[in-house]
Amino acid sequence: MKMRVLFVLAGVATAVAPARAQTRAAPAKPETAVFAGGCFWGVDAVFRHVRGVTGVVSGYAGGDAATAHYDVVSTSTTGHAESVEVTFDPAHVSYEELLRVFFTVAHDPTERDRQGPDVGSQYRSVVFYHTPEQHAAAVAMIAALGRETAYPRPIVTEVAPLARFYPAEAYHQDYLARHRTSLYIVYNDLPKLKRLEERFPKLYRP
User: 16, 64, 126, 184: which one has the fewest Cβ atoms less than 10 Å from its Cβ?
Assistant: First the structure.
């Protein structure tokens, strides 16, 4: 039987229900996204500067474990694409926002099997999805960008299920931060960070 407590205030009896225990909403679980958009150095660097992203790993996706090595992937015969695995907090950045950054800052989604000076199937544009929700979001984003005529040429990005992601060799990780004066980085990747800051100031993290 529930009990009620009576207080007498100025001669008036007031019933006070027992206080309910306060509950806090459980924090959002980290999620992961995998994107391929040319050389993974620049894509890696872009997502490291997005608020809400808690981890970025450069690696390979689309092939098998036996060929997930840089020297072999570079032959364009493995099915792998240079990719990045992005871990993010959905309470601070959404998957849709990451997609928008991927398509409009991290690479040119209208280039087939290449990005800038890099040519080969390992440099193709791919969204590797984990869930039906990620698949639907990627397809919707491509359709939206098409309606916006965001590019003068059609988007050629593949949307494919992720079988497995293989981390790349240690010397590829966080490459831009360790080689900021490299001519490749200066010409191809530092401009991406500038575009991120200009186009998404609320998402940009110095």
Answer: 16
Which residue shows structure tokens 């980085």?
Answer: 185
Structure-block tokens of residue 22 = 């306060």
Concerning whether 39 is annotated as a catalytic residue, the answer is yes
Whether residue 19 is contained in a domain is answered as no
The pLDDT assigned to 9 comes to 40
In a domain, residue 106? The reply is yes
Tokens describing residue 4:
């009620």
Is position 204 within any domain?
no
- Cα 72–chain centre separation: 26
Task: Of 60, 154, 70, 148, give the one whose Cα is nearest residue 108.
Answer: 154
- pLDDT tens-place string over residues 192-201: 999 999 999 9
Catalytic residue among 33, 36, 39, 137: 39
Give the count of domains, the chain. 1
Q: Is residue 95 part of a domain?
A: yes
Rounded Cα distance between 182 and 176, Å, is 8
pLDDT for residue 3: 44
- How many alpha carbons fall within 13 Å on the CB side of residue 124? 22
Helical H runs in 49-131?
70-73, 95-101
Host domain of residue 194:
29-199
